UniProtKB/TrEMBL annotation:
It comes from the Bacteria. Pfam families: GFA. InterPro entries: CENP-V/GFA, Mss4-like_sf. Keywords: Lyase, Metal-binding, Zinc. This is GFA family protein. Belongs to the Gfa family. Residues 2-114 form the CENP-V/GFA domain. Gene3D superfamilies: glutathione-dependent formaldehyde- activating enzyme (gfa) (3.90.1590.10). It comes from Roseobacter ponti. PROSITE patterns: CENP_V_GFA (PS51891).
Length: 124
């Protein structure tokens, strides 16, 4: 089981099923929300149990971002038309065993850093 929480502990979550798309997202919105590229993984809505008062911000016409209104931690990304949710790897407790598999939205990458690994890179 994978567990995580926000910085103040008001929100916690448990992932009980499989995860996929373990990636670094370099899109402009993720960089602005997280302060840099965002490391995340995806699981089905039915495989995550969230406790606490998540505040959802409609960041576009098709997606929203979940954060803690108390400490400001950015925890989740959710496409409105999908039955899955992305969760931030930086919010996880030790021992997740997850490894980054790819980079996404590299066409939007910040000019202040380089991608210096051999993982696959996708423009979107």
């Amino acid at each position: 089981m994978i567990t995580g929480s926000c910085n103040c502990g008001a929100i916690s979550f448990e992932v009980t099923g499989p995860v996929r798309s373990i990636s670094h997202c370099h899109c402009v919105q993720c960089r602005r929300q997280a302060g840099n590229f965002w490391a995340a993984a995806v699981t089905e809505d039915s495989d995550i149990r969230i406790s606490g008062p998540v505040t959802w911000y409609a960041s576009s016409d098709f997606a929203k971002r979940g954060f803690c209104a108390t400490c400001g931690s950015f925890l989740f990304w959710k496409h409105n038309a999908e039955s899955s949710v992305s969760f931030g790897l930086g919010t996880l407790d030790a021992g997740s065993g997850l490894k980054i598999e790819k980079h996404i939205f590299v066409a939007d990458k910040g000019d202040y850093y380089d991608i210096a690994d051999d993982l696959p890179q996708h423009d979107t």
